[in-house]
Predict the 3D structure of the following.
Amino acid sequence: MFRRADTYDLLRRATNPVSREAWTDAILVLVEKYGLDGVDFDWEYLNRAPDLLSILIGRASDEPHYFTTLGLLRDKLPYGKSLSINGSWCPR
């Protein structure tokens, strides 16, 4: 979903402290509206991987925001709904 360079910063903006509460609430609405089993995040640039797709590389300051947002979403998801994430293949 966020593969284009011009949309990459959306995840960074959504997981910041100002936006994360509203963003996780919006995800919950979609999960319920469409009867989804859960949510999957595939953000592989968290650890500043080489710029393979000409996108902005993750910053160290992104990490706590990303993990805090995942924890918040996990806590909000109803029982029986899954939250999965994908890690990067690239070492720091």
Remarks:
- The chain has one domain: 5-85.
